[in-house]
Design goal:
Blueprint: E1 3-8, H1 13-24, E2 28-34, E3 58-59, H2 62-67, E4 71-74, H3 78-91, E5 94-97, H4 104-113, E6 118-121, H5 127-142, E7 148-155, H6 165-178, H7 182-185, E8 186-187, E9 202-208, E10 215-221, E11 226-232, H8 237-249, E12 256-258, H9 260-264
Parallel strand pairs: 1-2, 1-4, 2-3, 4-5, 5-6, 6-12, 7-9, 8-9
Antiparallel strand pairs: 7-10, 10-11
Helix pairs in contact: 1-8, 3-4, 5-6
Bound molecules: nicotinamide-adenine-dinucleotide.
């Protein structure tokens, strides 16, 4: 069976990687791509990824793309992801969401769509980071709150949300390990007279600069020792590869909201 995969936001950094991955993956065919109104709409998709014209035109109609796809991959912006979630809900097409920085209403739209379409949502599609989530949960469960948990991330200068969705995912894994709601213990920034650190806090620190694809470290420190777990991405290909893997995995799945742990068979 050949799986037709569409890519919304196809001219973006990740959109282009997703197209390359679809074209390179056996058993997949590129159903098409959409972009926000502007320069790219109406032109051929091939040159976006450095090849000659492939006879597939960039569109701007999500419903048309979802209707002609077996799965659609989304690395865009929250407002667009909400529209794409409605298209998934209307058509029942499998949907892979990688966009981060989503607000509560965007998340509600995805959860509503998952009543009618199978969806994989992940802040990070790499195998390494998903293993890091699992390890973080395990370590946090073993160490008492005497160990301070801090999460440090660095990304390229173009990134628009902070902390990264992956850093929040690590925080969520640590909070689950400690059996506390992340919202009750998260400390997203520190500035000025902050006073001493509160026991049990999960801290976040964000760095932005240059072309860094994505570095994440979680630290567990007490007075006597510090354990650090680090992941560094050196190619966006790992995210695109994971997204295509998720799109294939969704074929034949029931409507519902799944994560990369389901796709990869982790815990
Ligand atoms: P980018 O700015 O390069 O690309 C976003 C694209 O979406 C742009 O081309 C933009 O024109 C397009 N877009 C905006 N509105 C649209 C609309 N209505 N319809 C169609 N396209 C639209 O950004 P990027 O670096 O590719 O990252 C995109 C998102 O993916 C970010 O939220 C980022 O954090 C996330 N991301 C997730 C992972 C992961 O593994 N989950 C990995 C990398 C990036």
């Amino acid at each position: 069976m050949t799986v037709a995969i569409g890519v919304v936001g196809c001219a973006g950094r990740m959109g282009r990687m997703a197209i390359q991955e679809v074209l390179a993956t056996e058993g997949c065919v590129l159903a098409g791509g959409t972009e926000a109104p502007g320069d790219h709409v109406g032109s051929d998709l091939g040159p976006l990824v450095g090849v000659d014209a492939i006879g597939v035109t960039i569109g701007d109609d999500p419903i048309a793309l979802f209707s002609s796809s077996d799965a659609v991959i989304d690395f865009t912006v929250p407002a667009a992801t909400r529209i794409h979630a409605s298209a998934a809900e209307e058509t029942g097409t499998a949907f892979v969401v990688g966009t981060t920085g989503l607000g509560p209403e965007d998340q509600t739209a995805i959860e509503s769509a998952a009543q009618n379409a199978p969806i994989v949502q992940a802040p990070n599609f790499s195998i390494g980071v998903n293993l890091l989530f699992a390890l973080t949960k395990k370590v946090a469960a073993k160490l008492n709150p005497d160990y301070d948990i801090e999460i440090l991330e660095m990304h390229h200068r173009h990134k628009v949300d902070a902390p990264s969705g992956t850093a929040l995912g690590i925080g969520q894994a640590a909070a689950v390990g400690r059996a506390v709601p992340l919202d009750d213990v998260a400390r997203y920034a520190r500035e000025g007279q902050t006073g001493p650190r509160t026991t049990g806090e999960i801290g976040f620190a964000t760095l932005r600069g240059g072309g860094v694809i994505g570095d994440h470290t979680v630290m567990f420190s007490n007075e006597a020792e510090r354990l650090e777990l680090t992941h560094k991405a050196s190619s966006r290909g790992i995210f695109a590869g994971g997204a295509v893997r998720a799109a294939l995995w969704l074929q034949g799945k029931k409507p519902g909201l799944y994560g990369m742990a389901d796709v990869l068979g982790l815990d």
